[in-house]
Amino acid sequence: MKQHQPQSAGVIVQAGEVPLEGTLALPEKAGGIVVFVHGSGSSRFSPRNRFVAEFLNQGGLATLLFDLLTADEHRIDERTRELRFDIDLLTKRLIGAVDWLEGRAGVADLPVGLFGASTGAAAALRVAAERPKRVAAVVSRGGRPDLTGAALSRVEAPTLLIVGGEDGPVIGMNQEAAAHLHCEHRLDIVPGATHLFEEPGKLEQVARLARQWFLDHPGSR
Q1: Is 33 left (phi over 0), alpha (psi -120 to 50) or beta?
Q2: pLDDT, position 40
Q3: Distance between the two ends of the chain, CA-based, in angstroms?
């Protein structure tokens, strides 16, 4: 596959009244942009999401990694661990980021994909339901789609659920969630992988599956 060297820059994502730090990578002639929604206790510096983002960049997809919480909120969450499970808050922040892209030169007209991990996957699915004309596809890595709630049945974007074969409880949660999806969807179980896909080669399998899903479902504006 042709290598795409992206232009990468730090940005401030204005999610409503809350400024959030992020990193925007834009390959030449990008075919879409994927917004990453990190999981429990993570940030835009998540090494797993950065690995996947670089893989997507090589496929000609732009990426946005951003912090769902402010610095103060992150410090609070480190102590209480409660904000990472506040799906309403995470959804609000993600909607703000998706709407912010509408006014950003170079990416405003690109179809949007959402890549959610852990609790971030629930927020991604809720936003797909809230912005059906904007979100072209969703990928969940080790996600908690069971936290999506009633919005799950309203998701229209093609959705790929990726779970590690050794992540038993989360497999069940994803199987049950898949039964409530009315859109095009697929559940892929990566053999031998645990929740964080830390085993050799497993995260690369996730990246390949995600990239192909986004490229196969480019959407339209």
Answers
A1: beta
A2: 65
A3: 26
SS3 29: coil
The residues, ordered by sequence, that sit 6+ positions from 113 with a Cβ below 8 Å of its Cβ are 32, 33, 34, 35, 61, 135, 136, 137, 138, 139, 214, 217, 219
Q: Are 146 and 162 in contact (CB under 8 A)?
A: no
The C-alpha atoms of residue 30 and residue 60 are separated, in whole angstroms, by 5
User: Residue 117 pLDDT > 70, yes or no?
Assistant: yes
Burial of 104 from C-beta contacts in 10 A (0-12 / 13-18 / 19+):
middle
116, 122 Cβ separation under 8 angstroms: yes
Q: Which helix (H) or strand (E) holds 9?
A: strand 7-15
Q: ∠122-126-128 over CA atoms, to 5°?
A: 115
Domains annotated for the chain, with CATH where assigned, are 7-216 (3.40.50.1820)
What count of other Cβ atoms lies within 10 Å of the Cβ of residue 9? 10
3-class DSSP assignment, residue 28:
coil
Mean pLDDT of 20-39: 93
**Amino acid at position 152, single letter:** L
Across the beta sheet with 7-15, what order do the strands follow? 7-15, 18-26, 62-66, 33-37, 112-117, 135-141, 159-164, 185-190
